[in-house]
Amino acid sequence: MNRDDGIVAAGAPTQGKRDGTRDIMVAGLAKLYGAVRVLHDVSFTMRDGEFLTLLGPSGSGKTTTLGIIAGFVSPDRGDVKVGNRSIIDLQPRHRNLGIVFQNYALFPHLSVCANVEFGLRMRKVPHAERKRRARRMLERVGLGEFADRAPGQLSGGQQQRVALARALIIDPDALLLDEPLGALDRRLRQQVEIELKSIQRETGVSVLHVTHDQEEAMVMSDRLAVMRAGRIEQIDTPINVYKYPSTRFVADFLGEANLFDVEVRESDGRHAAVLYEDGSRGSVHVSGGSVVAGARRVVCVRPERIHFNGAGETAANSVEGTLVDCLHLGSSVRCIVRAMDRNVIVTRPDHADFAAPEPGTRVRLGWGSVDGQLLVGES
Amino acid sequence: MAPGTSRGVERARPRTMPWTLLLAMPALLLLVLPILPIVPMSFTAGHVVEFPPSKWGLFAYRELLSDPGWGYAIAFSLKVAGLAVLMSVVSAALAAFGVAGLPIRSDGLITAIILVPLAMPVVVLALGTFQLFIQIRLTGTLVGIAVAHAVLGVPYVFLTVRAALSRLDMALVRSAMSLGAGTWSVLRWVYLPALRPALVSGSLLAFVVSFDEVVIALFNAGPGAITFPVKLFTDVQQDLSPAIMAVSTLLLTAAVLAVVVGMTVSGARRTIDRLTLRDRIGGDSR
Predict the structure, then answer these.
(1) Is residue A258 exposed (0-12), middle (13-18) or buried (19+ Cβ within 10 Å)?
(2) For chain A, which terminus, N or C, has the lower number of CB atoms within 10 Å?
(3) Given CB atoms, is A31 within the 8 Å cutoff of chain B?
(4) What does pLDDT average to in each consecutive run of 10 residues of chain A (379 residues)?
(5) What is the pTM of this model?
(6) Which chain B residue's Cα is nearest to A153?
(7) Do A8 and A119 contact (CB within 8 A), yes or no?
(8) ipTM
(9) In total, how many domains does chain B have?
(10) Fold type of domain A256-375
């Protein structure tokens, strides 16, 4: 095989050109490790310039998916395409994808600048040009003055930016981030999230980001795919996944969820009339699937969507319970109410006009028909 | 490296107990004392080896220079050791790579086979190689002795390289590949720098093993194929000439010098590390 085939001329200015030739299509990936099926049937398309996050607990198959796209793991079935060109049979070095690992994986014996140059060196870019471009890339990530340092002399956040510069300099079709913020402490992580997002916007590069941190996924992603046990459970914008989860798992994994077992009375595909366990009737939102009358389903209500109903007030959904306790969390109050044999979490902003009821009192909880989401993905 | 690791920061050292030193001293003396008289014994003016010499002089050294056999033996030993190191490094490093890629179960068996020379009595190996070499006409040759010595060196190089390989972060290899590195570039830019210390120390061990080895070298010795330890051994048996004391003194000096230089270099390196660490802390606080 020709040594250089597949290696795109590095640094070609493709920015701003969105013709779909850099879209990444993943189709029907399946992978078995021994007797364990780590991927069942994973398919998604990442559009050029998109920031897509694979979110899931460990063992959900997100890292294996990234490894298959990068070429480190060969799938049992399925295909990966860039544009309409299949890359599944290409060596990792011919795939033109930039990768940032959790521990940065900087070459310890090379200077920061030489690390960034590496991809260009492999592409036989002449010394002077290579140096110039590496320095420019380092300036871009704000590390111009650290070019001659050894990677070990830099802080975690700085090393992470070097790894980013090293991956970006080859003008990759996409950037693959494997839990890149996992090693940083919380404060630094929030700062790097913003930096990473702004570098992504500036360069226009597509990013496939793998994480188990839901906050990270919410902040940075254009879309996120929630993975569980080798399958994608839901893929949508962060706000849609949060508002309209399709399964119990997604509802629980992303944010906090109150889940109620219900029986569906009737549904028009947008709304559904439901019967709660305590016999009360209600109306909730439905999206992304049809439900037949009589089916037993689960309704998800986010804690901030539930309010306490005063006497005479009504809501589309209304259940009675006993207040267990209220905790003040600074900007909000978090109350636990015992209703229908479960603890219902209610969070209210700590307004002056909100008076938390006394523990032990009977309260009425209510939520509107747009605040409850019928989970259609599973029974 | 993660930020804030305490590497290099002054760590509390266990304090040296005076009584452990007291216990260690006799053992140390027992090991070193028998060697020390060799030095004055080499500076004798007469033919007889005695301690202390009745008359001081450089006779032994003059005799050493007059016998070209010593020079040949040392040169031959160096050649044998060099070749043995080369062979054991290449085969042991390849073996370490191979074993690293094996499934866990088979790697234990193969490792055990590679390490057999460590446990085998050298005299068995010497007899075995002798009989084999007679048939393929390798007795009394540089290559023959070097091959046999390489067998002894392989476990040392294998163990050091394998340890270094197991510490190597595979993300480095994957990063290099994703940036366009082929097999040779990955070897050149990732494996070689990471394994260099292991290769150096493994080579040193293999060198010492070969340079020191007398049983195999004696069995397979021949005209023009006499290693330094063999020459020393046979000369001691024939007549105890002061030249032996002289050559031993020279070797002792060389060994001590090597250790002193080694310690100085590593001490200097540690100082440099400490200085760069200070630099790093300064860089962070800015």
Answers:
(1) buried
(2) N
(3) no
(4) 39 55 92 90 93 93 94 94 92 94 92 95 94 93 90 90 94 92 82 87 92 90 94 93 91 90 88 89 83 87 89 84 88 90 89 76 90 78
(5) 0.77
(6) B280
(7) no
(8) 0.81
(9) 1
(10) OB fold (Dihydrolipoamide Acetyltransferase, E2P) (2.40.50)
